[in-house]
């Protein structure tokens, strides 16, 4: 019997998000990091969640630990690394969308090595959630994720892999090789359409889903922004429509989807219904600013779906 629903692994970061108030541009502090956001989303949607990473022994790291404590995310295996810093990033907005600036080189999380992966915690989880960003931040972090995937497979822990592509972190050819190898070790592939087109060289959602299934995963949940999600298994493919809302900031919407999808899938086992639930959670997450603050809770998502 597994004692944990979702274990996420990667790099959490402190976030500073641009807002305009009284004619001034301000940057409000918050929290980010794709897999950390997903862990919080999973916890808010009823999953027993945990996180593994390394943080700097600094005020930013302490703030992130405080976030997980408040959200009920188990951080018992998180490493505190003196002499290394916790990553931070800035989000700015303009007519073309939102833009990111990072201060993460040499961060504590980028120094994680395979030997530091908490194998017992991976084995205790029903799902291990990681992303391409978790592997892009350094060679040692990349190797650590592959080691975690190996441990998960041996322990019967399902793996969900988000193909989040950040070309500032690594070249496309290396990203393709690593992502495809990781998806081949995963149960659930979680690509976004724009990233998947770059990673696969394919265009249509159907082709992309078939490609990821051909690598060996059993579920593909391809998010397509305002066009919803396409969910594919070896036997069935469906488009799950998006839920329309008056969005103000889409930062972290994919992470909201990830956590909500896993929380619902672990309850129901139905990837199609879970994607509809996750679409609703992602839509609600765009109603506020920042990656974590607007993440909805299960009661919010259920009320929203009941009103649709």
Question: What report would you give on this structure?
Answer:
With 308 residues, this protein is of the alpha/beta class. The protein has one domain (4-307): Ribokinase (UDP-N-acetylmuramoyl-L-alanine:D-glutamate ligase). Helices cover 40% and strands 25% of the residues. The protein has 11 helices and 14 strands. It has an 8-stranded mixed β-sheet with strand order 4-1-9-10-11-12-13-14, sandwiched between helices. A hairpin with a 2-residue loop joins strand 2 and strand 3. The model has no long low-confidence stretch (mean pLDDT 96). Keywords: Kinase, Transferase.
Low-confidence blocks of residues: none
CATH architecture descriptor name:
3-Layer(aba) Sandwich
- The fraction of residues in strands falls at 25-35%
CATH topology grouping: UDP-N-acetylmuramoyl-L-alanine:D-glutamate ligase
* Straight-line distance between termini: 36 Å
Largest sheet: 8 strands, mixed
List SSEs in N-to-C order. Answer: EEEHEEHEEEHEHHEHEHHEEEHHH
Arithmetic mean of pLDDT? 96
Computed structural class: alpha/beta
Radius of gyration: 18 Å
| Number of helical regions | 11
GO molecular function: 2-dehydro-3-deoxygluconokinase activity
Keywords: Kinase, Transferase
InterPro entries: PfkB_Carbo_kinase (IPR050306), PfkB_dom (IPR011611), Ribokinase-like (IPR029056)
Family: Belongs to the carbohydrate kinase PfkB family.
